[in-house]
Amino acid sequence: MAGFFVVFEGGDGVGKTTQIDRLADALRGGGSDVVVTREPGGTDLGRELRQAIMHGGHVAPRAEALLYAADRAHHIATKVRPALERGAVVVQDRYMDSSIVYQGGARGLGDEVERISLWATEGLLPDLTVLLDMEPAAGRMDRELDRVERETGEHKSLIREAFVARASLAPERYVVVDAAQTIDEVAADVRAAVSAALEAAGMPGLPVDGLGVEPWGTP
Ligand code: TMP
């Protein structure tokens, strides 16, 4: 396919939206055709599914997994593949690793979740996945945690570990960025990794910006 597909993954609150905006600005500044999108909710149907999954009542775990997969199937077929086919850079907030980690891992549905997503997308994998990795915030509190905070804190640690494990399975298709750095530092790391991956795919890399952060200087 002619374009380039970059996905951001990571736990809640690691700064994906900010970094996606920063990367999209840099790509547009370099003259690329850029499509910024998200799952769930990157299409009209997806917005309805997002509402049903996240803001409705209880959803049975297998139904939840299938709703994410339905959102993904429609999104990839109607928005992402056409953009890639015309040569755009697609910058996407979450993809199938989120299903593998949250539904497959945290909800205990196992490996079938990955197969469902691969079927839903006819096997489309990102050219690069940027994993924004950070210690869950609950771990930094000094007072004693209540039950809910403790449970969600533990859950968040497992989610973090599951994302890192995904990245280690295919290191050539992932970059793990320390999201506890400043916004500018994270943006510089992301930019350097995306630029290198674009060039490796035969596309133009990113120009150096004037923010005082040296994108190529970070090891
Ligand atoms: P976000 O769009 O604010 O990141 O929220 C999406 C939420 O949905 C987030 O808690 C992660 C969750 N999610 C899944 O559980 N499975 C998925 O496949 C996706 C895409 C998101």
Summarize this entry quickly:
It is built from 7 helices and 5 strands, in the order βαβααβααβαβα. It has 219 residues and is of the alpha/beta class.
The multimeric state of the shown protein is single chain
Through-space gap between termini: 30 Å
Global mean pLDDT: 91
Number of domains: 1
- Would you tell me which CATH topology applies? Rossmann fold
CATH C-level class is: Alpha Beta
Helix content: 40-55%
Write structural notes for this entry.
There is one protein chain. The chain is α/β, with parallel strands linked by helices. It has one domain (4-200): 3-Layer(aba) Sandwich (Rossmann fold), CATH 3.40.50. Helix content is 51%, strand content 12%. It has 7 helices and 5 strands, in the order βαβααβααβαβα. Helix 6 links the parallel strand 4 and strand 5 (174-178). The longest helix has 25 residues, at 61-85. The two termini are 30 Å apart. The relative contact order is 0.18. The model is unreliable at 210-219 (pLDDT under 50). Bound molecules: thymidine-5'-phosphate. The site of thymidine-5'-phosphate has 10 residues, from helix 4.
List the helices and strands and how they pair.
Blueprint (H helix, E strand, L loop, with lengths): L3 E6 L6 H14 L4 E5 L5 H11 L6 H25 L3 E5 L2 H11 L5 H9 L7 E6 L13 H23 L4 E5 L4 H18 L19
Parallel strand pairs: 1-3, 1-4, 2-3, 4-5
